[in-house]
Specification:
The protein is an alpha+beta fold. 35% of the residues lie in helices and 29% in strands. It has a three-stranded antiparallel β-sheet with strand order 3-4-5, with helices on one face.
Length: 221
Amino acid sequence: MVAGYEGGKALAVIKYSEKVLEHFRNPKNIGMIEDADGQSTVGSPACGDQVSMFLKIREDRITDIKFLSYGCASNIATGSIITEMAKGKSLNEAKAITWKNAVDELGGLPPVKIHCSVLAIDGLRAAIQDYEEKTTGIKQERKVDEMMILDELKKVIYPKNGINIVDTNMIRYLSFEEGVITIEISIEETDLFKQNVLEEIDEHLEVLPGVKKIEIKVVEY
């Protein structure tokens, strides 16, 4: 168990599995690779979590991988386990690793910390993409549209059931016009996870190119 602090105030005690604590206390593959073939940084310290990934690749296989973490115990533990899972794998095999695989390997995560595994997977895939763009000379860009926004929202996990907010049918309306994302989300005002979910939505969408404003309306159906 780990007690958190925010603004000098103690937060509720969070229960972690022994494996999470093991990877938090003794993280694997921590550090940087100065001559990395692919690297990435995802998340933001201002939002509380950030992960950087560094890859060495030979013949489309990850021969070395390291990470740096700015965040909580779950952030460090997921970075550690995912680098262990990816090391030695082909790029396609590494791309196939999911946040659920990481959570299972760690023996579970507290519901409010599942987003850390999503962030670490994003970091791994972004580092692979960086390598592929460097080797092919082709930048992989997607136009920001409603489908892309939905894909980003699928990375927001509803802590109560461990399913993303799109597949949970919580998104009732979505539009993207002139840089403004408008969302209606079905969640009760008294839901303990409401603020977590709304903050996660902002964090995932505000970094998309061309997004000027995010308007979220909470509705109850």
